[in-house]
Here is the input.
Amino acid sequence: MKTDSFDVLVIGGGPAGLCACAELSRCGIKVLLVDEGPVLGGQLVKQTHKFFGSREHYAGVRGIEIPDKLQEEIDEKLITVYSSSTVVGIYPPNNNVLIYRDQKKVEEHSFKYIIIATGASENMILFENNDLPGIYGAGAVQTLMNQYGIIPGKNMLMVGAGNIGLIVSYQLLQAGCRVKKLIEAAPSIGGYLVHASKIIRMGIPVQTSTTILKAIGTEKVEGAITVKLDENWNQIEGTEEEIEVDTICLSVGLAPSYKLAVHAGCKQIFIRELGGMIPWRNSSQETSVNGIYIAGDACGVEEASSAMIEGRLAGLNIAKCMKRLSEKACNEKIDDNLISLDKLRSGPFGERIVEGIRKLEGKSYE
Amino acid sequence: MFEKMDPEKVIVCRCEGITLADLRDGIERLKINDLEELKRIYRCGMGPCQGRTCEKVIKQVIQEFSNNEVDIGSYSYRPPLVPIKFEELANVEANDVT
Here is the structure.
Protein backbone atom coordinates (compact mmCIF):
# COMPACT_ATOMS: atom_id res chain seq x y z
CA MET A 1 0.00 0.00 0.00
CA LYS A 2 1.10 3.51 -0.74
CA THR A 3 2.40 5.39 2.25
CA ASP A 4 0.64 8.63 1.90
CA SER A 5 2.23 11.93 1.34
CA PHE A 6 -1.22 13.47 1.50
CA ASP A 7 -2.93 14.57 4.68
CA VAL A 8 -6.47 14.62 3.37
CA LEU A 9 -8.45 13.01 0.55
CA VAL A 10 -11.21 15.12 -0.97
CA ILE A 11 -13.64 13.17 -3.14
CA GLY A 12 -15.41 15.34 -5.71
CA GLY A 13 -14.24 18.63 -7.22
CA GLY A 14 -17.57 20.46 -7.26
CA PRO A 15 -18.40 23.54 -5.16
CA ALA A 16 -18.10 21.70 -1.82
CA GLY A 17 -14.90 19.82 -2.68
CA LEU A 18 -13.12 22.86 -4.14
CA CYS A 19 -13.98 25.01 -1.12
CA ALA A 20 -12.73 22.29 1.21
CA CYS A 21 -9.45 22.23 -0.76
CA ALA A 22 -9.20 26.03 -0.53
CA GLU A 23 -9.48 26.06 3.28
CA LEU A 24 -7.14 23.07 3.69
CA SER A 25 -4.43 24.46 1.43
CA ARG A 26 -4.66 27.83 3.17
CA CYS A 27 -3.66 26.02 6.36
CA GLY A 28 -0.71 24.31 4.64
CA ILE A 29 -2.41 20.92 4.47
CA LYS A 30 -1.57 18.58 1.58
CA VAL A 31 -4.61 17.35 -0.30
CA LEU A 32 -5.35 14.69 -2.88
CA LEU A 33 -8.46 15.68 -4.86
CA VAL A 34 -10.15 12.95 -6.88
CA ASP A 35 -12.76 13.99 -9.42
CA GLU A 36 -14.75 12.02 -11.97
CA GLY A 37 -14.87 14.74 -14.62
CA PRO A 38 -12.21 15.85 -17.07
CA VAL A 39 -12.36 19.39 -15.63
CA LEU A 40 -12.99 20.52 -12.06
CA GLY A 41 -16.19 22.26 -11.00
CA GLY A 42 -18.80 19.51 -10.78
CA GLN A 43 -22.21 20.78 -11.83
CA LEU A 44 -20.92 24.36 -11.94
CA VAL A 45 -19.31 23.70 -15.32
CA LYS A 46 -22.73 23.65 -16.94
CA GLN A 47 -24.41 26.43 -15.00
CA THR A 48 -24.33 29.31 -17.44
CA HIS A 49 -26.74 31.44 -15.38
CA LYS A 50 -25.78 34.09 -12.85
CA PHE A 51 -26.02 33.28 -9.17
CA PHE A 52 -27.81 35.57 -6.81
CA GLY A 53 -27.85 36.23 -3.10
CA SER A 54 -25.04 38.23 -1.55
CA ARG A 55 -21.61 38.97 -2.94
CA GLU A 56 -19.84 36.52 -0.61
CA HIS A 57 -21.95 33.79 -2.23
CA TYR A 58 -20.91 34.82 -5.75
CA ALA A 59 -24.03 36.81 -6.59
CA GLY A 60 -23.92 38.09 -10.15
CA VAL A 61 -21.26 35.56 -11.14
CA ARG A 62 -22.08 32.84 -13.66
CA GLY A 63 -21.77 29.30 -12.34
CA ILE A 64 -19.25 28.38 -15.02
CA GLU A 65 -16.89 31.11 -13.78
CA ILE A 66 -16.89 29.99 -10.15
CA PRO A 67 -14.58 26.93 -10.45
CA ASP A 68 -11.75 29.19 -11.71
CA LYS A 69 -12.30 31.65 -8.87
CA LEU A 70 -12.22 28.82 -6.33
CA GLN A 71 -9.10 27.31 -7.86
CA GLU A 72 -7.38 30.67 -7.49
CA GLU A 73 -7.80 30.22 -3.74
CA ILE A 74 -6.00 26.88 -3.77
CA ASP A 75 -2.22 26.67 -3.42
CA GLU A 76 -1.14 24.51 -6.38
CA LYS A 77 1.89 23.18 -4.52
CA LEU A 78 -0.29 21.63 -1.86
CA ILE A 79 -2.88 19.95 -4.04
CA THR A 80 -2.64 16.93 -6.32
CA VAL A 81 -5.59 16.43 -8.64
CA TYR A 82 -6.61 13.10 -10.12
CA SER A 83 -9.23 14.04 -12.71
CA SER A 84 -11.25 11.54 -14.75
CA SER A 85 -10.76 9.28 -11.72
CA THR A 86 -13.14 7.61 -9.29
CA VAL A 87 -12.87 6.51 -5.68
CA VAL A 88 -14.36 3.03 -5.98
CA GLY A 89 -14.24 1.94 -2.37
CA ILE A 90 -13.46 2.97 1.21
CA TYR A 91 -12.60 0.13 3.56
CA PRO A 92 -12.83 0.40 7.35
CA PRO A 93 -11.31 0.38 9.86
CA ASN A 94 -8.22 2.18 8.48
CA ASN A 95 -9.92 4.15 5.72
CA ASN A 96 -8.09 2.30 2.99
CA VAL A 97 -9.19 3.72 -0.31
CA LEU A 98 -9.18 2.30 -3.83
CA ILE A 99 -8.89 4.89 -6.58
CA TYR A 100 -9.60 4.07 -10.21
CA ARG A 101 -7.10 6.47 -11.73
CA ASP A 102 -7.71 7.78 -15.27
CA GLN A 103 -10.30 5.00 -15.54
CA LYS A 104 -7.51 2.51 -16.17
CA LYS A 105 -5.42 1.68 -13.14
CA VAL A 106 -6.28 1.03 -9.54
CA GLU A 107 -4.30 2.58 -6.68
CA GLU A 108 -4.61 1.85 -2.99
CA HIS A 109 -4.13 4.57 -0.41
CA SER A 110 -4.91 5.17 3.23
CA PHE A 111 -6.05 8.43 4.79
CA LYS A 112 -6.67 9.70 8.25
CA TYR A 113 -9.05 12.36 6.93
CA ILE A 114 -11.48 12.09 4.04
CA ILE A 115 -14.05 14.61 2.82
CA ILE A 116 -16.85 13.08 0.78
CA ALA A 117 -18.24 15.72 -1.58
CA THR A 118 -19.83 13.51 -4.20
CA GLY A 119 -22.95 15.56 -4.87
CA ALA A 120 -26.26 14.11 -5.92
CA SER A 121 -27.83 12.12 -8.73
CA GLU A 122 -31.00 12.83 -10.67
CA ASN A 123 -34.30 11.22 -9.84
CA MET A 124 -36.32 9.47 -12.49
CA ILE A 125 -40.07 8.96 -12.71
CA LEU A 126 -42.14 6.17 -14.17
CA PHE A 127 -44.38 6.55 -17.21
CA GLU A 128 -45.23 4.53 -20.27
CA ASN A 129 -42.48 4.21 -22.90
CA ASN A 130 -40.00 5.88 -20.57
CA ASP A 131 -37.14 4.17 -22.43
CA LEU A 132 -37.71 5.94 -25.77
CA PRO A 133 -34.79 7.90 -27.22
CA GLY A 134 -35.46 11.60 -26.66
CA ILE A 135 -36.06 11.38 -22.92
CA TYR A 136 -33.37 13.11 -20.89
CA GLY A 137 -32.61 14.10 -17.36
CA ALA A 138 -32.19 17.87 -16.97
CA GLY A 139 -28.54 17.37 -16.04
CA ALA A 140 -27.89 15.53 -19.30
CA VAL A 141 -29.59 18.31 -21.27
CA GLN A 142 -27.37 20.89 -19.56
CA THR A 143 -24.26 18.84 -20.27
CA LEU A 144 -25.11 18.43 -23.95
CA MET A 145 -26.15 22.01 -24.46
CA ASN A 146 -23.98 24.11 -22.19
CA GLN A 147 -20.80 22.03 -22.21
CA TYR A 148 -20.74 20.50 -25.67
CA GLY A 149 -22.96 22.88 -27.65
CA ILE A 150 -25.37 20.17 -28.78
CA ILE A 151 -29.11 20.86 -28.90
CA PRO A 152 -31.05 17.84 -27.64
CA GLY A 153 -34.20 18.50 -29.71
CA LYS A 154 -36.48 21.16 -31.12
CA ASN A 155 -39.74 20.91 -29.22
CA MET A 156 -39.55 20.13 -25.54
CA LEU A 157 -41.78 19.08 -22.70
CA MET A 158 -40.20 19.98 -19.37
CA VAL A 159 -41.32 17.88 -16.42
CA GLY A 160 -40.73 19.57 -13.05
CA ALA A 161 -40.85 23.25 -12.10
CA GLY A 162 -38.18 23.36 -9.43
CA ASN A 163 -35.21 25.67 -9.97
CA ILE A 164 -33.45 23.25 -12.28
CA GLY A 165 -36.54 22.77 -14.47
CA LEU A 166 -37.05 26.52 -14.68
CA ILE A 167 -33.43 27.38 -15.40
CA VAL A 168 -32.95 24.63 -17.97
CA SER A 169 -36.18 25.70 -19.72
CA TYR A 170 -34.77 29.19 -20.04
CA GLN A 171 -31.44 27.88 -21.29
CA LEU A 172 -33.26 25.78 -23.89
CA LEU A 173 -34.99 28.94 -25.13
CA GLN A 174 -31.65 30.70 -25.32
CA ALA A 175 -30.34 27.81 -27.41
CA GLY A 176 -33.21 28.21 -29.85
CA CYS A 177 -35.38 25.29 -28.72
CA ARG A 178 -39.08 25.61 -28.17
CA VAL A 179 -40.33 24.63 -24.72
CA LYS A 180 -43.94 23.80 -25.47
CA LYS A 181 -45.03 23.26 -21.91
CA LEU A 182 -43.67 22.98 -18.41
CA ILE A 183 -45.58 20.66 -16.07
CA GLU A 184 -45.28 20.24 -12.31
CA ALA A 185 -46.96 17.54 -10.22
CA ALA A 186 -47.17 19.73 -7.11
CA PRO A 187 -49.94 22.36 -6.87
CA SER A 188 -47.40 25.20 -7.08
CA ILE A 189 -44.09 26.06 -8.75
CA GLY A 190 -41.22 24.89 -6.56
CA GLY A 191 -38.45 27.17 -7.82
CA TYR A 192 -37.67 30.83 -7.18
CA LEU A 193 -40.07 33.47 -8.46
CA VAL A 194 -37.37 35.24 -10.52
CA HIS A 195 -36.76 32.10 -12.56
CA ALA A 196 -40.47 31.31 -12.90
CA SER A 197 -41.32 34.86 -13.96
CA LYS A 198 -38.74 34.75 -16.74
CA ILE A 199 -40.28 31.57 -18.12
CA ILE A 200 -43.81 32.88 -17.92
CA ARG A 201 -42.82 36.20 -19.53
CA MET A 202 -41.38 34.25 -22.44
CA GLY A 203 -44.82 32.76 -22.95
CA ILE A 204 -44.16 29.18 -21.84
CA PRO A 205 -47.34 27.66 -20.41
CA VAL A 206 -46.77 26.30 -16.90
CA GLN A 207 -49.27 23.69 -15.69
CA THR A 208 -49.20 22.72 -12.03
CA SER A 209 -50.90 19.62 -10.56
CA THR A 210 -49.99 17.85 -13.79
CA THR A 211 -47.81 14.84 -14.50
CA ILE A 212 -46.70 12.80 -17.50
CA LEU A 213 -48.59 9.60 -18.26
CA LYS A 214 -46.86 8.38 -21.35
CA ALA A 215 -44.39 9.14 -24.08
CA ILE A 216 -45.68 8.58 -27.61
CA GLY A 217 -43.52 7.19 -30.39
CA THR A 218 -42.00 3.99 -31.71
CA GLU A 219 -38.38 4.74 -32.60
CA LYS A 220 -38.13 8.03 -30.72
CA VAL A 221 -40.27 10.51 -28.83
CA GLU A 222 -42.99 12.02 -31.01
CA GLY A 223 -45.25 13.31 -28.28
CA ALA A 224 -46.45 12.93 -24.73
CA ILE A 225 -49.68 12.56 -22.80
CA THR A 226 -50.08 14.54 -19.60
CA VAL A 227 -52.76 14.23 -16.94
CA LYS A 228 -54.05 16.49 -14.15
CA LEU A 229 -53.75 15.45 -10.51
CA ASP A 230 -56.21 16.13 -7.69
CA GLU A 231 -55.21 17.30 -4.21
CA ASN A 232 -54.40 13.71 -3.22
CA TRP A 233 -52.13 13.31 -6.23
CA ASN A 234 -54.62 10.98 -7.94
CA GLN A 235 -54.95 11.25 -11.69
CA ILE A 236 -58.20 12.90 -12.77
CA GLU A 237 -60.18 10.93 -15.31
CA GLY A 238 -60.70 12.70 -18.64
CA THR A 239 -57.96 15.33 -18.17
CA GLU A 240 -55.45 13.64 -20.47
CA GLU A 241 -53.88 16.00 -22.97
CA GLU A 242 -51.67 15.14 -25.90
CA ILE A 243 -48.77 17.36 -26.82
CA GLU A 244 -46.49 17.08 -29.83
CA VAL A 245 -42.82 17.15 -28.77
CA ASP A 246 -39.59 15.43 -29.82
CA THR A 247 -37.87 15.66 -26.45
CA ILE A 248 -38.96 15.13 -22.86
CA CYS A 249 -36.76 16.59 -20.17
CA LEU A 250 -37.12 15.30 -16.61
CA SER A 251 -36.27 17.59 -13.76
CA VAL A 252 -37.85 15.78 -10.85
CA GLY A 253 -35.42 16.23 -8.03
CA LEU A 254 -32.09 14.97 -6.81
CA ALA A 255 -30.99 12.30 -4.37
CA PRO A 256 -27.77 12.52 -2.31
CA SER A 257 -24.93 10.30 -3.58
CA TYR A 258 -23.37 8.94 -0.44
CA LYS A 259 -22.58 5.31 -1.24
CA LEU A 260 -18.92 5.80 -0.32
CA ALA A 261 -19.96 6.89 3.17
CA VAL A 262 -21.76 3.56 3.54
CA HIS A 263 -18.62 1.71 2.42
CA ALA A 264 -16.77 3.53 5.16
CA GLY A 265 -19.29 2.42 7.76
CA CYS A 266 -20.98 5.78 8.33
CA LYS A 267 -24.35 5.48 10.02
CA GLN A 268 -27.37 6.60 8.03
CA ILE A 269 -30.49 8.35 9.14
CA PHE A 270 -33.80 9.10 7.44
CA ILE A 271 -34.62 12.80 7.15
CA ARG A 272 -37.27 13.61 4.60
CA GLU A 273 -36.42 17.32 4.43
CA LEU A 274 -32.84 16.57 3.40
CA GLY A 275 -33.71 14.10 0.66
CA GLY A 276 -34.45 10.83 2.51
CA MET A 277 -31.67 8.56 3.74
CA ILE A 278 -28.46 10.48 4.39
CA PRO A 279 -25.32 9.82 6.40
CA TRP A 280 -25.54 11.18 9.93
CA ARG A 281 -23.24 14.13 10.56
CA ASN A 282 -22.65 16.79 13.17
CA SER A 283 -22.32 20.55 12.69
CA SER A 284 -18.61 20.08 11.90
CA GLN A 285 -19.73 17.99 8.88
CA GLU A 286 -18.12 14.91 10.48
CA THR A 287 -19.91 11.57 10.07
CA SER A 288 -20.22 8.81 12.67
CA VAL A 289 -16.81 7.52 11.53
CA ASN A 290 -13.86 9.38 12.96
CA GLY A 291 -12.04 11.44 10.32
CA ILE A 292 -14.68 11.04 7.62
CA TYR A 293 -16.46 14.26 6.72
CA ILE A 294 -19.23 14.91 4.23
CA ALA A 295 -20.30 18.15 2.56
CA GLY A 296 -22.61 19.52 -0.10
CA ASP A 297 -25.48 17.73 -1.81
CA ALA A 298 -24.05 14.35 -0.74
CA CYS A 299 -25.38 14.98 2.76
CA GLY A 300 -28.65 16.69 1.84
CA VAL A 301 -29.72 18.30 -1.41
CA GLU A 302 -29.47 22.09 -1.25
CA GLU A 303 -27.69 24.63 -3.44
CA ALA A 304 -24.20 25.33 -4.71
CA SER A 305 -23.84 28.26 -2.29
CA SER A 306 -24.53 26.16 0.80
CA ALA A 307 -22.40 23.32 -0.57
CA MET A 308 -19.47 25.75 -0.76
CA ILE A 309 -19.87 26.74 2.89
CA GLU A 310 -20.24 23.14 4.04
CA GLY A 311 -17.04 22.33 2.14
CA ARG A 312 -15.24 25.18 3.91
CA LEU A 313 -16.57 23.99 7.26
CA ALA A 314 -15.32 20.44 6.65
CA GLY A 315 -11.89 21.75 5.66
CA LEU A 316 -11.64 24.10 8.63
CA ASN A 317 -12.70 21.44 11.11
CA ILE A 318 -10.02 19.10 9.80
CA ALA A 319 -7.44 21.90 10.06
CA LYS A 320 -8.58 22.34 13.66
CA CYS A 321 -8.17 18.62 14.43
CA MET A 322 -4.74 18.62 12.79
CA LYS A 323 -3.82 21.72 14.81
CA ARG A 324 -2.57 23.48 11.68
CA LEU A 325 -4.18 26.70 12.72
CA SER A 326 -4.69 28.08 16.20
CA GLU A 327 -7.92 26.96 17.78
CA LYS A 328 -9.01 30.56 18.13
CA ALA A 329 -8.41 31.38 14.46
CA CYS A 330 -10.17 28.17 13.42
CA ASN A 331 -13.18 28.82 15.61
CA GLU A 332 -13.53 32.35 14.30
CA LYS A 333 -13.55 31.16 10.70
CA ILE A 334 -15.91 28.31 11.52
CA ASP A 335 -18.32 30.70 13.23
CA ASP A 336 -18.22 33.07 10.25
CA ASN A 337 -19.15 30.21 7.94
CA LEU A 338 -21.90 28.97 10.25
CA ILE A 339 -23.42 32.47 10.31
CA SER A 340 -23.15 32.63 6.54
CA LEU A 341 -24.91 29.27 6.22
CA ASP A 342 -27.72 30.43 8.53
CA LYS A 343 -28.15 33.53 6.41
CA LEU A 344 -28.43 31.45 3.23
CA ARG A 345 -31.07 29.24 4.80
CA SER A 346 -33.05 32.09 6.36
CA GLY A 347 -35.49 32.62 3.47
CA PRO A 348 -38.75 30.74 2.93
CA PHE A 349 -36.94 28.23 0.69
CA GLY A 350 -34.56 27.40 3.51
CA GLU A 351 -37.31 26.45 5.95
CA ARG A 352 -37.34 22.82 4.92
CA ILE A 353 -33.57 22.53 5.20
CA VAL A 354 -33.52 24.26 8.60
CA GLU A 355 -36.21 21.84 9.82
CA GLY A 356 -34.17 18.92 8.44
CA ILE A 357 -30.97 20.09 10.14
CA ARG A 358 -32.88 20.57 13.40
CA LYS A 359 -34.08 16.96 13.21
CA LEU A 360 -30.59 15.77 12.31
CA GLU A 361 -29.01 17.53 15.27
CA GLY A 362 -31.68 16.25 17.61
CA LYS A 363 -31.04 12.64 16.67
CA SER A 364 -28.12 10.40 17.27
CA TYR A 365 -27.47 7.81 14.60
CA GLU A 366 -28.18 4.76 16.72
CA MET B 1 -50.81 6.23 -9.63
CA PHE B 2 -49.92 3.67 -12.32
CA GLU B 3 -53.48 2.57 -13.15
CA LYS B 4 -53.60 4.33 -16.50
CA MET B 5 -50.28 2.94 -17.70
CA ASP B 6 -49.53 -0.30 -19.52
CA PRO B 7 -47.11 -1.86 -17.00
CA GLU B 8 -45.32 -3.82 -19.73
CA LYS B 9 -44.22 -0.53 -21.25
CA VAL B 10 -42.91 1.13 -18.10
CA ILE B 11 -39.22 0.42 -17.52
CA VAL B 12 -38.29 0.51 -13.83
CA CYS B 13 -34.69 -0.75 -14.01
CA ARG B 14 -33.25 0.23 -17.35
CA CYS B 15 -29.90 -1.53 -16.97
CA GLU B 16 -31.58 -4.91 -16.60
CA GLY B 17 -34.75 -4.14 -18.57
CA ILE B 18 -37.14 -4.83 -15.69
CA THR B 19 -40.66 -3.53 -16.20
CA LEU B 20 -43.38 -2.38 -13.86
CA ALA B 21 -45.30 -5.56 -14.85
CA ASP B 22 -42.40 -7.76 -13.64
CA LEU B 23 -42.17 -6.09 -10.25
CA ARG B 24 -45.93 -5.90 -9.80
CA ASP B 25 -46.11 -9.63 -10.37
CA GLY B 26 -43.44 -10.19 -7.74
CA ILE B 27 -45.10 -7.94 -5.20
CA GLU B 28 -48.73 -8.98 -5.73
CA ARG B 29 -48.44 -12.66 -6.66
CA LEU B 30 -45.26 -13.69 -4.86
CA LYS B 31 -45.95 -11.30 -1.92
CA ILE B 32 -42.45 -9.87 -1.92
CA ASN B 33 -42.19 -6.42 -0.40
CA ASP B 34 -38.53 -6.23 0.39
CA LEU B 35 -36.02 -4.47 -1.83
CA GLU B 36 -33.25 -7.06 -1.45
CA GLU B 37 -35.53 -10.01 -2.13
CA LEU B 38 -36.96 -8.37 -5.22
CA LYS B 39 -33.42 -7.78 -6.43
CA ARG B 40 -32.47 -11.40 -5.93
CA ILE B 41 -35.35 -12.58 -8.11
CA TYR B 42 -35.49 -9.92 -10.83
CA ARG B 43 -31.95 -8.48 -10.81
CA CYS B 44 -33.38 -4.96 -10.62
CA GLY B 45 -30.63 -2.63 -9.44
CA MET B 46 -27.86 -5.08 -10.31
CA GLY B 47 -26.76 -3.55 -13.61
CA PRO B 48 -23.95 -1.09 -14.23
CA CYS B 49 -25.71 1.77 -12.40
CA GLN B 50 -26.07 -0.37 -9.25
CA GLY B 51 -29.41 1.20 -8.36
CA ARG B 52 -28.28 4.80 -8.79
CA THR B 53 -31.24 5.49 -11.07
CA CYS B 54 -33.76 2.85 -10.07
CA GLU B 55 -33.51 2.37 -6.29
CA LYS B 56 -35.86 5.23 -5.52
CA VAL B 57 -38.47 4.23 -8.09
CA ILE B 58 -38.37 0.57 -7.06
CA LYS B 59 -39.13 1.67 -3.49
CA GLN B 60 -42.03 3.72 -4.84
CA VAL B 61 -43.37 0.68 -6.73
CA ILE B 62 -43.21 -1.49 -3.61
CA GLN B 63 -45.06 1.16 -1.60
CA GLU B 64 -47.71 1.42 -4.29
CA PHE B 65 -48.46 -2.30 -4.67
CA SER B 66 -47.98 -3.68 -1.16
CA ASN B 67 -50.97 -2.79 0.95
CA ASN B 68 -49.43 -2.71 4.38
CA GLU B 69 -46.77 -0.38 5.64
CA VAL B 70 -43.58 -2.37 5.39
CA ASP B 71 -39.92 -1.76 5.98
CA ILE B 72 -38.66 -1.85 2.42
CA GLY B 73 -35.01 -1.54 3.42
CA SER B 74 -32.17 -0.14 1.32
CA TYR B 75 -29.64 -1.75 -0.95
CA SER B 76 -26.35 -2.66 0.65
CA TYR B 77 -23.75 -0.52 -1.03
CA ARG B 78 -20.49 -2.37 -1.56
CA PRO B 79 -17.29 -1.59 -3.41
CA PRO B 80 -16.55 -1.17 -6.26
CA LEU B 81 -18.65 1.92 -6.83
CA VAL B 82 -18.29 1.70 -10.61
CA PRO B 83 -17.50 -1.35 -12.75
CA ILE B 84 -13.76 -2.09 -12.95
CA LYS B 85 -11.97 -5.03 -14.52
CA PHE B 86 -10.58 -7.88 -12.43
CA GLU B 87 -7.33 -7.43 -14.30
CA GLU B 88 -7.08 -3.86 -13.00
CA LEU B 89 -7.91 -4.94 -9.47
CA ALA B 90 -5.34 -7.72 -9.62
CA ASN B 91 -2.66 -5.18 -10.59
CA VAL B 92 -3.19 -2.91 -7.58
CA GLU B 93 0.02 -3.91 -5.85
CA ALA B 94 2.11 -3.69 -9.00
CA ASN B 95 0.85 -0.19 -9.67
CA ASP B 96 1.94 0.95 -6.27
CA VAL B 97 5.60 0.08 -6.59
CA THR B 98 6.16 3.37 -8.40
Remarks:
- Helices of chain B lie at 20-28, 35-42, 55-65, 86-90, 92-96.
